[in-house]
Fold this protein.
Amino acid sequence: MKTPDADFIIVGSGPAGVSAAFPLIAAGRRVLMLDAGNDARSGDESRSARVLGSNLESLRADDGSSPKLQTPVARGILERFRRESGITGEGFMPVASLARGGLSNIWGAQISYLDAEDIAAWPIDIELLQRSYVRISRRIGISTNADLTAGANSGPVLPLGATAAHVLRRHKIARPADGSFRLFPAVNAILSEARPGRAACDLRGDCLYGCPSGAIYNSRQDLLALQKSPHFRLLDNMRAISLTSNSGWTIGTADGSSFSAPRIILAAGVLGTAALLADLLPIGGEGLRLLNSPTLAIPLLSPARLLRSATATHSLAQLGLSLRYGERASDYVTGAIYEVGSLPAQSFVNRMPLGRKAGRAAFETIAGSLLVATIYYPGDQSRSYIHREVTGKGMIVRGGFADGFEIRAKELKRRLRREWKRLGLVPLPGASLAEPGIDAHFAGTLPMGATGQFGTSVDGELNLHPGLHVVDGSILPELSSKYITMTIMANADRIAQRLAEMEAKPAL
């Protein structure tokens, strides 16, 4: 083996990758990060260019996906991944990124924390995860929405939109009969107070278009801090395509380069990591199990807010919710409520049974009273598998739902209708179950603590391949209905803290 290029090579510049890098360089380890993207994105482009796209991407036909996946930046990221990754979907939309910063370029930025019940079957203690949660929270900056007219707590806050604030007040007045339903201000990775290099949210509603102020967390921001360390090196346009073991590990890239280190840390996202490991894992006819969150979108009307204009706010989640539907610890859904007035009008106008001009006029009339709720089920309600293509080139993800899911989904809608009524909300026609994959909440392909051929250790080290560590969602043993990016980042931090204590020597 040639002289190692680093003590650790990290594949991927998304939230997991940067979270693994910080503890390692703090311990003086030499870290090389390979990034399939680059920093060519312009930071001073006009708003019209960001909203419409250089090729008018925003005017394309509505494909039925989430509004955040139809923006020019999102289309560019997803189309590049589909074009270059060799991963396709059948009843599944493969959402992943090869761009600098990974999916943090287009994520929803909502923050959730797992508790002891959520990780009861995991091979780690909740205290370790909680310590990492604190470190990550301090680094990325988070804010809670608050109804400022009712007074805010002492933490960083951003104002709730008027319709969301109205619904939250209704919830506090008309409490549910039991504790199975919860409604609360959402917590988002967005700044209410400026930091060096990042401005506070200006409430202009540009959240889906790249957030030019930098208020929303993007792991690109962390790369600037990492590059100040003499122990860190970042290489652009280095898409990893192969892994070879010798006295350590060597990574081959699409341009023909190769890089070696005693230990490799894979943070390429669940789909990207699976593709990179395809030749090293015995993926047979059954495929590699992939957990994802079945997702339901529900449009809601607040009659009390009709004909009132929308208020200035961000377009991230305004409220968070949860509803228990069974006896098991994992039997609950979570979700978010968004103000439609802060979302792109075109995504909603295109779905109205009216002409474009009439549809826009109707939308502008009622936008201030419209909300959209997104509901996420836990991963055990999905049935998705990653398979090798018959040709041996590329992979395909086949998506589906667990047996009996339709019955559970129907019952959940019934119970939610009761809560909407209590909150003074009217569900509108158009509620839809999203195609598997659109949620981008992926986990469970290489679970920590599993003893089989696809299992990994508590440090994310593959059972079959010592020296290969995974820190993205692949190694989460279970997928609750909660938003998982914060947990992925915290788990990557936890693993890197442990790896930083090891001597940087070959694992084989």
